[in-house]
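Appendix C: a fully annotated inverse folding record. The material below is reproduced so that readers can follow the format used throughout the book. The structure is listed first as tokens, followed by the designed sequence.
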């Protein structure tokens, strides 16, 4: 018999894996590390990275230097890394300047990095990586400064955490998930600092750091990872002489049906235009586990945006493109709140009639037209902001009005029509975490079911409903992890067509079939088969049938 009477078994300050940062007040604060190993030869590989937080990137000039390496003059043989007032990152080496198109978010922690690999320079903002081609330099000296330039005219204002400089290795040459733990002293590391919540001068490679001004060590850090704490809220009695094993692993590994938020609280959002010709900007929402009418959420940026693509993480919904007017706008909302959308960035081109696929980190927009039909697949990192990046191509070169569903690893694209108006019954798939062209999966039950079909599902089963040049009540399904043709599921409450949309939890798929006059809001239980049941009506009754849907409980959020 054993009695365990402990409230906390493991505990460190804070609830995340990064434990410290340094605050710079913008009026003379900076750090100078000792050492003679910061210089770079003409094409030497390196990685310079850190976490950065600022309430604003505006300052008295157009930029604020975060890192300066080399001599007093970066135009000849020195290097700097600067935060521009637009939120982009500028890197300069021996007179060559490169600026990211991806932007940091003011008021949030952002991971930034610059690397050189075999001469090619890569700049990353929150895991989005851009290749700027070959950049060589004159050999630089070993001077190094954090938080200011050498001239004493630019000082960074904000927080820096986990500043690391590695020589000989380029860590980030493609898109990646930013680090979720305290950075380590890897081989080739010549500087690793701003990690200690009690001292600004602590440095992991043994260097001495001199603080100028009054920079402050803080516990304000990026909220990533876990400190490994285990807490018992009350008395725990173990009445056994045998071994006691605590459960291990991630929740979703031990409970395979765990997806996004709990099915009981998952929220579905529907976004589109409420008139035709389009002039609205409506977002409405439902609680998927209930029934009833939609409620007003807020407005999207710009009037008349319809035939958009929607993706979602557990916290954020992102909407891309527009038909009237044709647009490259991407905006977003926080799903659990209400309110108007905020600017996110731009798609690679003007975009309309695309479909959305997402997991907890990445949102993908597939197909559409611009304004001619095309096969582009592009993606964004949902929790950051910035412009979309090319992913690959769909199998069919001219394809729009598709449906889609997803698991955490795989995205399915179904149906659609081509530029000549021919209906498509093809199903193809992509691996969300990679890039590349789609691969054949199988076929829908009919080509007429494919045009303007709505798609959704949980992490194992994809549901497709409605569609057709003439509205149909067909519902079919596939098993996402396999390949093969779709199977009949049942019938919708009414025939539905015309840019249909769906919002799903792990148990239920809610379907908005918008073809006039039979505008339906219905649902099915995903793991069963059978006919749909009425859910409710739209509070703002759409007279246009060009809506898109998403949720914080869909199949990609396992």
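Designed amino acids, in order:
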């Amino acid at each position: 018999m054993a009695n365990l009477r402990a409230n906390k078994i493991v505990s460190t300050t804070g609830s995340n894996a990064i434990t410290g940062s340094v605050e710079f007040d913008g009026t003379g604060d900076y750090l100078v590390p000792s050492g003679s190993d910061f210089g770079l030869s003409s094409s030497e590989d390196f990685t310079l990275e850190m976490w950065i937080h600022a309430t604003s990137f505006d300052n008295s000039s157009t930029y604020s230097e975060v890192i300066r390496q080399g001599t007093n003059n970066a135009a000849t043989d020195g290097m700097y890394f600067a935060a521009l007032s637009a939120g982009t990152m500028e890197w300069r080496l021996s007179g060559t300047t490169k600026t990211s198109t991806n932007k940091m978010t003011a008021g949030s922690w952002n991971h930034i990095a610059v690397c050189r690999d075999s001469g090619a320079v890569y700049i990353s903002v929150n895991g989005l990586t851009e290749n700027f081609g070959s950049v060589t330099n004159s050999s630089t000296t070993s001077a190094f400064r954090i938080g200011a330039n050498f001239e004493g005219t630019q000082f960074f204002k904000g927080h820096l955490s986990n500043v690391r400089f590695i020589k000989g290795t380029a860590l980030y040459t493609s898109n990646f998930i930013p680090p979720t733990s305290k950075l380590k002293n890897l081989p080739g590391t010549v500087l690793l600092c701003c990690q200690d919540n009690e001292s600004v001068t602590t440095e992991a490679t043994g260097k001495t750091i001199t603080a100028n001004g009054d920079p402050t060590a803080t516990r304000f850090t990026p909220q990533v990872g876990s400190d490994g704490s285990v807490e018992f809220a009350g008395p725990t009695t173990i009445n056994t002489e045998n071994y006691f094993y605590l459960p291990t692993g991630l929740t979703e590994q031990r409970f395979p049906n765990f997806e996004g938020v709990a099915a009981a609280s998952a929220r579905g959002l529907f976004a589109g235009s409420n008139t035709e010709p389009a002039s609205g900007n409506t977002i409405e929402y439902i609680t998927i586990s209930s029934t009833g009418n939609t409620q007003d959420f807020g407005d999207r940026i710009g009037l008349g945006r319809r035939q958009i693509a929607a993706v979602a993480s557990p916290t954020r919904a992102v909407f891309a493109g527009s038909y009237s007017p044709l647009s490259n706008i991407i905006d977003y909302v926080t799903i659990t709140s209400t309110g108007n959308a905020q600017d996110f960035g731009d798609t690679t081109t003007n975009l309309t009639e695309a479909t959305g696929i997402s997991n907890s980190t990445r949102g993908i927009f597939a197909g559409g037209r611009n304004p001619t039909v095309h096969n582009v697949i592009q993606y964004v990192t949902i929790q950051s902001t910035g412009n979309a990046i090319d992913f690959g191509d769909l199998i069919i070169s001219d394809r729009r009005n598709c449906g889609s569903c997803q698991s955490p690893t795989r995205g399915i694209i179904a149906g659609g029509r081509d530029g000549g108006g021919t209906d498509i019954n093809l199903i193809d798939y992509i691996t969300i975490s990679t890039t590349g062209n789609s691969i054949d999966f199988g076929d829908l039950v009919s080509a007429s079911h494919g045009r303007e079909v709505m798609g959704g599902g949980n992490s194992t089963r994809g549901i497709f409903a409605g569609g057709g040049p003439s509205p149909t009540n067909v519902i079919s399904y596939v098993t996402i992890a396999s390949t093969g043709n779709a199977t009949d599921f049942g019938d919708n409450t009414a025939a539905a067509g015309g840019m249909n949309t769906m919002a799903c939890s792990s148990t239920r798929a809610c379907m908005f079939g918008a073809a006039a006059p039979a505008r339906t809001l219905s649902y099915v239980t995903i793991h069963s088969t059978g006919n749909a049941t009425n859910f409710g009506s739209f509070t703002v009754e759409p007279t246009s049938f060009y809506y898109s849907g998403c949720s914080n409980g869909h199949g990609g959020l396992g």
